[in-house]
Design goal:
This protein is of the alpha/beta class and 790 residues long. Helices cover 54% and strands 16% of the residues. α5 runs antiparallel to α6 and α12 crosses α23. The longest helix has 66 residues. The N and C termini lie far apart (170 Å).
Amino acid sequence: MIDEQQYAEALEELSELRLENKKLKREARHYVRDNELLRRANDQAMRTQAFIQKENYLQAFFNKQFLRTSPYYLIITDSNLKVVMCSEKLRAYASSKKVDISMDTDMKLAASAILSGKNLDSFYNQCLEVLDDRTSTSYILRNDDEDTHTDYQINISLMLDEDRIVGLNIAFLDMTEFIEAKEKAEAADEAKSSFLANMSHEIRTPINAILGMDEMILRESKEDQIIAYAQDIRSAGRTLMALVNEILDFSKVSEGKMEIIPIQYELVSMLNDIVNMINDRVKKKNLEFILKVDEQMPHLLFGDEIRIKQCILNILVNSVKYTERGSVKLEVGYRYKDSDNIYLEVHCSDTGIGMKEEDIEKIYSPFTRIEEERNRNIEGTGLGMNITKHLLELMNGSLSIDSVYGKGSDFMISIEQKVTDWEPMGDYTERFNKSKTANEEYKVSFVAPNAKILAIDDTEINLSVFKNLLKQTKVQIDTADSGFSALEMVKEKDYDIIFVDHMMPVMDGIETLERMKELDNYSKSVHIALTANAISGSREKYLEAGFDDYLSKPINGEVLEKMVYKYIYKDKNPEEVYAEDIVNDDFAVTEEGRVLPDWITHNPPFNIEDGIKNCGSEDGYLSVLKLFHESFRKNMKEINDYYEGGNWEDFTVKVHALKSSTRIIGEGVLSELALNMETAGNENDIDFIKAHYAELTEMCDKLDEFLKGFDNQSVTLPEMPQGLFKETLKSIRTASDEMDYGVVDMLLKVFENYSIAEENAKCVEEINERLLELDWDSIVEIINTKLSDN
């Protein structure tokens, strides 16, 4: 029997067991929940691990595919510049070069498959710098490989894990094709600029002679009819020069080098040029040309006359091109702006084919013709309106166009211009006729007989024109036909101004200037470049080369005179050079009564009429012909020397001069052959030159034989100063020490221009004989003996 105490203890124990059971049940529930959480966490971890494995697989797959298919040579290194991986393209290329690339291969060894020599060392140093500077770099490197080369763009990138360097990412990009294309484009652009410069020089040289001789006619003639003809020649010549410049304008616009140069100009004169330039086109198409000019227009304005004239002419030409019947009308007026300025307004209308509204903007596109099929017979390149638009923008002007398809077009130009003189122009026709027929005699602006000028040009006719343009100023003018001759002359005399032609054989104008400035005790002269090249940037080029100024050919007599006047007083008092008053009545005195001798007119190998036209008169023609003869043999000897020596560059320069000079005297056939020779020289067509050289020499010999009639006339050469004789010998001695045949031969020609004492002439003869034998030691000995005797 269980007593009460035992019963109570049993109840208490049972109660405790119940409590413990509840506790265990709670813990069991917690365990179950935690187990579920752990299971879920494990499932998530497994899913995460599977995702990471998949991502790693994909990343490895993509990396492998990238390295397998990459078109670049790629190298990934660790921080010790050991290869971690590389592209398959690099691995295959390296294998062909017997270089094995694997894990832990030294990076420099791997790169040796691509680079070599100094290039490899330079690349390796760049990698070290990237590691040291903790930066990245990219550069172009040309690597030579046997007979070829490869241009690489090398990108070296630093790889970081937070702030820790883990390695380099290196890429080699083959840029050879791109760089070669770029170099070809630059070469083509340079060739274009060279062509434009040569073309400009080509055309301007004969224009220079024409305008120079014409200027002499204007200055010296007293006959109204002759002066009227000469004024027409001058107008036409200037028009031709403007057209030559237009050819270059598109290139200048494209390069952003177009310049606006404002000057004071007479509106009547500008309009007259425009009318003269468009009249022939209008007449050929049987169109009516209507010109209406506001009589109240101020007659004297300030602006870029050349560019304004060009813009007006371009829209006129465009109207005439696209008008088959009816008329072209030009109206010129103005709109008042303020007390100093007006808006010059030019309105051109035509009865031509017109344009559709959607085609109007196309008119500004270069090399584009609207409605190609319909207008296929219209001449031109399509540059005119494009150039006009750019020119007007540079002058802050505007151009508006209205057109009705099938009925015609209207062009309106508006340009702000400064007014120099408000006097009304009045009746245009009357004012023009008055200005054209008026005999405006040339009046020299100054006389300076003490001033000294040296002109250097390898073309004798250019030197003749130069001297004639300045002869009434009574300035002392010496001339030299080469840089070598000029160097000897500046040793003997100080000159106020030295004009130097750029394009000369052997020693060009820039080198001549440099050599002058290197002479001991050389006086500080003013140096002015002469050039027929009208390419953009010419002025900057010559100033940078050390010239003080720049004068473009053909030389304008007025501009030349102003430039001389400007510089002869530089650093001097006027009385040092300006020694007498101007008496214009003394000028215009010409040699009268001279006609061509019978021997010239009897079966000449040239066209006398063409020569007279080129030179302006028989008088001028005889003078130029004699000048041509005096320099012809020397020029032909130089051409032959360059031919025999294979010096095609200087050969081309000399036949260029031969072409111009023979054209002036009327020898068109020889001039044409010389032109073909020059073209062949520029194109390096040596076979053509050799095939036709005998023909050239035969024609030259025939011309030289005919011109021997001049040799019967006595010629008095100036006596050679002893100082010049000694200096020339010293220069020959220096050139002989260097065994420089060309320079010695050139210096010996200096003696041909002077009368030399008998004992000195014998010395020169001996030097010539030793030169033929290339006996340089004997030449030096002869000169040393001669100099010691004196």
